[in-house]
Specification:
The protein is mostly beta strands. The protein folds into two domains: 95 residues, Carboxypeptidase-like, regulatory domain (Immunoglobulin-like, Sandwich), CATH 2.60.40.1120; 560 residues, TonB-dependent receptor, beta-barrel domain (Maltoporin, Chain A, Beta Barrel). The chain is built from six helices and 41 strands. The chain has a 22-stranded antiparallel barrel. A hairpin with a 5-residue loop joins β39 and β40. The longest helix is centred in the first third of the chain and has 18 residues. The chain starts with a helix and ends in a 5-residue tail after the last strand.
């Protein structure tokens, strides 16, 4: 019996010791609120747990020894604490995590002309890093921006590959493209210049969907795309990248930064070369245009004792491209023998920003751009020069931490000249050239008011005087309400006002395949718009998610929409006798899991239409604008290992209305189509060298082979031969690129700057 009792004592003691010791505790934030679903564990061991909904956790069965306790929660700094488990008593810890700049709370300047976190901004803003554009192997802004939900790069020509950026279904001219917050990308460069903005010079791209006319001018109706360039202090010392595709598209990026005690210099360039014309659809026209592009940029940051900003940025851009019949050469430019479209573009930009040494923060920024284009579209010659001069002086002032006032003045000078009737005048039956010169001085005021810890509002007003069209008033009002620490609601309303420039904005007006008819003098477009935005951060035991959704509504009292249907041989422009509506919603979900997986998904629904006023004052049935989708979606997924990363990306679009001819046998609407891409990246152990390869358009989607009507007769010389319906040459039936599936390979060398 004595031996039995001893054996039982040993067994009980063994069981007790096998249970090990426990660590219990609670995890809170700096406001002393519990943090649910935080990951708690002992470094390098299988011991771990997660906090419950009240922030409590328990780790049991720990063997005696020395450990390091780690607490992880997205949006907070990692917590580490040495722990000694002696097997004697239970441990209870009260842990406080410090909040850090969250991965979804980037610093932005687009909403207020000064650095502010996205979380605190009244205007909803998306901050996009070049990494998103690179997920599908794209090398420039125009191609990569498709990965942003509700934003689409639209190809406008089957021959020369021109394009623009659509936001929420509205055409490119409704979006202002900014460089470092300045409107230096004018009408001409929105057609070709966007392809000349390489990823290598971009720090981040800030996108505002919806009107932001108070700060950036009345033309920002659909939104703004603000390209923030890198600076020498944050850019890598050396950044070199080369990419080539199986179509023999060659892209070279170069970047170098230098820092002294007084200045920092970032300089670099981009070279793109493609001279391998292909005709895979058999229409005897190049599938994508031949291109030769060079871009050189330099940015200088002066390091002042006051730590205030002074920077100068310069860029030179040169491009030549052509598309057309496969046998075309330069000798045929402008002739009616072999059809081709050839465009030569040259552009200069100089931008500068300066903060004054004053108690009240006063800043100035300004710039000058020169853009020249020489081109032939078949036999139609188009030469144009656009010069922009911009200046803006503004002041920020905080009052009692409740009001934040922004007051400024601006001045925009535009000199535009081309060889079309747009810049011609007739005097005594003699046609004379008359460049279009516009002066646009303006003044703007915006006040951010913090009503409480949860509610803040903004109210703004801008007044511009257009030397051609007179006074322009654009008010704006916005509210932001924090529903909780992790969710917010924003409402922004305003107006828009835009001057239409047909020949610089609509490529179809230049091709010569259709006559251009103006039935009257075109008046400015006017709109009223509102956006309701909801944002929520969601913490789960699996990871961290960000949910965003928006409702948007635009009402146009005048909108200039090209009419392709009344006359097959003409594009007719007139003022809208009625009204137009563009409304819809978007939903975005970003999930960052505890495993190294990040998924982004987004959908956008659009209802865009216009209604003409009838003689009896009633309104016509709804009519849908050209090239506007009702539905679109984007998906990206990245899985990262120590040395490898795998990227998948895709876009999906619903049918769009296309310009067809009378009795056209081709469908009036494009089909549903989706583009899928996959990329593999390998980083060497020291991470200086990166290799990657991928495939774009995996399922080889391409438009119809007869997207160019009567490609065999581009000058309509045989229009009366075996042509009962009177079809004519027309390259305007286009909604996406003719380039199908292609493979690419790239290599990058990156020498990062040591962090202080």
């Amino acid at each position: 019996m004595k031996h039995l009792n001893l054996l039982l004592l040993i067994l009980i003691t063994s069981v007790h010791l096998s249970k090990g010791q426990s660590i219990k505790g609670i995890v809170k934030n700096e406001q002393n609120n519990p943090i649910p679903f935080a990951v708690v564990g002992l470094e390098g061991t299988p011991y771990g747990s997660t906090t419950d909904e009240k922030g409590y956790f328990e780790i049991s069965g720990i063997k005696p020894g020395k450990y390091v306790l780690i607490v992880n929660f997205l949006g907070y700094e990692k917590y580490k604490k040495p722990i000694n488990i002696d097997g004697k008593k239970e441990i209870f810890l009260s842990i406080q995590l410090k909040q850090m700049a969250m991965m979804f709370d980037e610093v932005t300047i687009s909403g207020s002309l000064s650095p502010i976190s996205m979380k605190n901004a009244t205007i909803p803003i998306e901050v996009v890093k070049p990494r998103l554009f690179e997920k599908s192997g794209n090398t420039n802004l125009f191609e990569g921006i498709n990965m942003v939900n509700g934003v689409r790069s639209q190809v406008n020509c089957n021959v020369c590959g021109t394009g623009d950026i659509h936001i929420n279904g509205m055409e490119g001219p409704y979006t202002i493209v900014l460089l470092d917050g300045m409107p230096m990308v004018g009408g001409l460069s929105t057609v070709y210049g966007l392809m000349g903005i390489p990823n290598s010079m971009i720090q981040q791209t800030e996108i505002i969907k919806g009107s932001n006319s108070v700060l950036y001018g009345s033309s920002a109706i659909a939104g703004i795309v603000n390209v923030i360039t890198k600076d020498a202090e944050t850019a890598p010392k050396v950044n070199i990248g080369y990419q080539v595709s199986n179509w023999l598209e060659n892209n070279l990026d170069l970047g170098f930064s230098f820092n002294t005690k007084k200045i920092g210099i970032l300089t670099g360039g981009n070279l793109f070369f493609y001279d391998n014309p292909k005709d895979l659809n058999g229409d005897n026209f190049t599938d994508i245009p031949v291109q030769n592009r060079q871009s050189i940029f330099t940015k200088i940051n002066v390091k002042r004792k006051s730590k205030k900003n002074f920077s100068v940025f310069g860029r030179y851009f040169n491009e030549s491209r052509w598309g057309g019949e496969m046998q075309w050469t330069k000798e045929f430019a402008g002739t009616d023998s072999i059809y081709g479209e050839t465009i030569s573009t040259r552009r200069y930009e100089v931008l500068s920003s300066y903060e004054f040494n004053t108690k009240i923060p006063i800043s100035w920024n300004g710039g000058f751009s020169y853009h020249k284009q020489n081109s032939f579209y078949g036999t139609t010659k188009f030469d144009a020069v656009q010069q922009l001069l911009f200046n803006r002086l503004y002041m920020h002032k905080k009052f009692s931490n409740i009001h934040q006032l922004l007051v400024g003045i601006s001045f925009l000078y535009e000199n535009y000249d081309d060889n079309t009737p747009a810049t011609q005048t007739s005097q005594d039956s003699i046609i004379q050239n008359q460049p279009s010169i516009t002066y646009l001085p303006g003044i703007f005021l915006k006040n951010e008011y913090k009503h409480s810890e949860k509610l803040q509002s903004t109210i703004g007003l801008r007044y511009d005087y257009n030397s051609v069209h007179g006074n322009i008033f654009t008010p704006q009002i916005g509210f932001k309400y924090d529903l909780s620490e992790y969710s917010s609601l924003r409402l922004v309303s305003g107006t828009g006002y835009r001057i239409v420039h047909v020949f610089t904005e609509d490529h179809a007006a230049l091709t010569g395949s259709r006559d251009v008819i103006f039935t009257e003098n075109l008046k400015p477009e006017k709109s009223y718009n509102s956006t309701l935005h909801y944002n929520k951060f969601i913490n789960t035991k699996w990871g961290f998610m960000n949910l965003k959704s928006s409702l948007f509504y635009y009402y146009f009292t005048n909108r200039i929409l090209p009419d392709y249907e009344t006359n097959d041989n003409a594009i007719i422009y007139s003022n809208l006798n009625g009204f137009s509506v563009n409304r819809g919603m978007s939903i975005d979900l970003t999930a960052n899991f505890e495993i190294p997986l990040i998924i982004n998904m987004g959908i956008t629904l659009i209802d865009s239409y216009y209604r003409d006023k009838m003689p009896d004052n009633s309104f016509s049935e709804k009519k849908r604008p050209m090239l506007t989708e009702n539905f679109s979606s984007t998906t990206t997924a990245t899985y990262t290992l120590k040395k490898f990363s795998f990227d998948y990306s895709s876009t999906l679009y619903s049918p769009m209305k296309l310009p067809v001819l009378e009795n056209d046998y081709r469908p009036e609407y494009s089909p549903w189509f989706s583009i899928h891409n996959f990329k593999i990246t390998y980083k060497t152990p020291k991470k200086h060298l990166t290799f990657y390869t991928g495939v774009n358009n995996i399922f080889d989607f391409k438009p119809r082979k007869d997207a160019i009507m009567r490609a065999f007769d581009p000058f309509d010389k045989q229009v009366n031969v075996n042509n009962p319906y009177g079809y004519t040459f027309d390259p305007g039936y286009v909604y996406t690129s003719n380039q199908g599936r292609y493979f690419y390979f790239g290599i990058k060398y990156n020498l990062e700057r040591k962090k202080n």
